[in-house]
Each structure stands twice: as C-alpha cells, then as structure tokens.
Amino acid sequence: MSLTGPSPITLATLRQAPKAVLHDHLDGGLRPATILELAAACGYDKLPAQDPESLRKWFSESANSGSLVRYLETFDHTVAVMQTPEGLHRVAYECVEDFADDGVVYAEVRFAPEQHLEAGLTLDEVVQHTLDGFAAGEKAVAATGRRIRVVCLLTAMRHAARSREIAELAVRFRDAGVVGFDIAGAEAGYPPSRHLDAFEYLSANTMRFTIHAGEAFGLPSIHEAVAFCGADRLGHGVRIIDDIEVADDGDATLGRVANYVRDQRIPLEMCPTSNLQTGAVASLAEHPFGQLARLRFRVTVNTDNRLMGDTTMSNEMLALVETFGYGWSDLERFTINAMKSSFIHFPERLDLIDNLIKPGYAVLIG
Questions:
Q1: Catalytic: 215?
Q2: How far apart are CA 131 and CA 173, in angstroms?
Q3: Which of 223, 226, 234, 241 would give a disulfide with 288, using CB separation of 3.0 to 4.6 Å?
C-alpha cells in the first residue's frame, strides 16, 4: 500500500486499476490489423481502407455521425470477417488479451450468433468457436501471471424473429461459458415486448438477461423492459433521466419508473463514449451518469464498442473523472457495482471483489 497518499489518476494508473465490464460487443472490438488479415483470408473485398491506421480512423469517424443507424452500419465490415471458425476464435482470443492489457479482470462480452451463419456454420458451432477463443485467451493471460474471467452473453436482434431460438441457444450453453441473453439493434419500432416469448422462456429456465433500452428511444422502452419483460439489467438506460425532475436547489423528484429502477437496484450498463457518438447525449457534461450516480442508481461503466469508440475501459473512466471529478473511491464503487450486477454465480463474484478489485484499488487509494 502506498505511504504517500492516492496515486494520481492518469491513463497509465487507470490501466493498473482492476476493472469489470458488463456491456461490450465482440463485433465492435476488433483490432484493425485483424480485420484486414481476416478479410484477406476469407476474400472479403469491401473494406473502406487498406492499412490498420486508416481503417481505425474510418471506424471512429463513421461512428461519430450522431446517428445510431449509421453507427450500426459499421458492423457490416466486422461481422463479415467473423463467419469462419478461425475468425470467431481469433477475435474472441484477442478480445481477452486486449481487456487484460487494459487491466480488466472481468468481462461479459456479447454477440449475435444469428449474424455469423453466412459461411455455413450452425448456431451451436458459432457459439462453441467463440467460447473456445475466450478460453484460449484466458489461458494465455494466465500464463503471463495475470487473471481475467471472460464470459458470454448471446444477443438476439430485435428486428428479427429469432429471439426464442437464441434464448434456447443461451440456455443450451449455460454451463459452457454463456451466462445471459440480450436483445439489441435499433429501438424505434421494435419494442422489447415483441420478444416476450423469449423472456418467458429464459425466466422459466432461471436464465439472466439484459435488454438494450433507453438509448435511442425514450422512457417507454425502459418501462417495457422492466415492467413487462422483467429485465435483470438495462443496456444503456440513459433516458431514465426523463423520469427525474431536478429543482434549482438540486433536489430530485423521481417518477414511478425511475423509483422502480433505483429501488430494485436494476443496473444501468452506461457507455459514455458510445452514448455521445450515437446522439443519445449531446455532450459528456450532459450525460446523466453524474446525476444518476449522485442519486445512487446502480450505474456501471462500459465500453460498448471499443473499435468504433476508439476506446478502452481506462479511457471511459478517465472521461468520467475529467467530466465529473471522480476519485479512486468512486471508480472502485462503480467497479463493485458491475461485479454485484454480473451474471456469474455469487461465490465467483465475491472472489473477484475480495481478491482482485478491493486489493487493487487499495494500492491506488493509498
């Protein structure tokens, strides 16, 4: 433990902090060099740039359009190179490496198996190759003396009609590394209640699930997700702020939905950089994270899409520190929020909190 007080909060020291991420898309976190190599291997010739740095910049600039629809279009290229066993395995493996290099000790990574069938793989094969990549990545990290736990959420696309099938797939792999289910995609016109049969199946099989809600659409999306679908967590959930009135003196009055979300400790998977890129918030200073944290909602910090956001967990934390003035104790609280909200079993959660997260922050707090 430091005898000189807290370590300064910089990008370098943040990388040393043990972190937990609940909301990260596998197809949104590829290395540009890997995209180029996989594209060459599978014959994909539609990439907008032909060198890693130019490709990185293209993804970042395209994702900064302020439109969720255009933001989602960038995934056409990443998904295209994740159609083979080799592509899925490599992307999953490198995801684990990249998280470990950034100090992440726990990650729930999500992807939509239904989008990876173009080369003839079955849904089960897609999931198995991905899980094998995660396992190999964990083993490689362990060989360097570090520890990381990476598990998987299976996502169904909200505009498609395969959510029940993907829910069954998640339950089928629940003891092999899949810990939950999600629906994602454009919110407007595709309410979560369209997928009630999937959520009822998951509940009947005691499987946890999160729902993208309150990002590009408003409070009704959040209400449906928690009241009708029974979501364990909310992906983004920024529009919960629409149900909170703040007086000039700072006093806050919560509406029924906001009170329910806070009372039930429903976690909010907040992704500051992504929310800014998609137009869910106008600026980081206006991001509801600060107000929600002050009101003791269970806020968590997440990356969403590391490639499109040109970001890492350390970058996300630094942005919050610079915007809201947080210190190490705040970052520790947000990290423990994430671990408490994770979909792994309680003993493993407790182990990571007690043996990695608390000791890691104790060193930084001094």
A1: yes
A2: 10
A3: 241
Number of domains in the chain: 1
Residues ≥6 apart with Cβ < 8 Å to 248:
none
Q: Which domain holds residue 304?
A: 11-365
Burial class of residue 11 (count of CB atoms within 10 Å of its CB; 0-12, 13-18, 19+): exposed
State the pLDDT confidence band at 1, using cuts at 50, 70 and 90. very low
Say whether pLDDT at 117 is over 90. Answer: yes
- Residue 227 CA to residue 264 CA, distance in Å, equals 12
Count other Cβ atoms within 10 Å, centred on residue 48.
11
| 6 falls within a domain | no
Q: Is residue 51 part of a domain?
A: yes
pLDDT value, residue 68: 64
Q: What is the CATH number of the domain that holds 358?
A: 3.20.20.140
Binding site members for substrate: 25, 27, 185
Q: Where are the alpha helices (DSSP H) in 123-224?
A: 123-142, 163-172, 196-204, 219-223
Query: In this predicted structure, what is the pLDDT of residue 66?
Result: 64
pLDDT confidence of residue 333? 98
- Structural contact between residues 81 and 47, judged by C-beta atoms closer than 8 angstroms: no
Q: Please tell me which residue in 114, 138, 168, 215 is annotated as part of the active site.
A: 215
Residue 63 lies in a domain: yes
Q: What is the pLDDT of residue 169?
A: 98
What is the C-alpha to C-alpha distance for residues 1 and 92, in angstroms, rounded to an integer? 35
pLDDT per residue as tens digits for the range 231-258: 999 999 999 999 999 999 989 999 999 9
Residue whose token pair is 């299976």: 154
The token duo for 108 is: 């729930």
Share of the chain above pLDDT 70, in %: 98
In a domain, 145, yes or no: yes
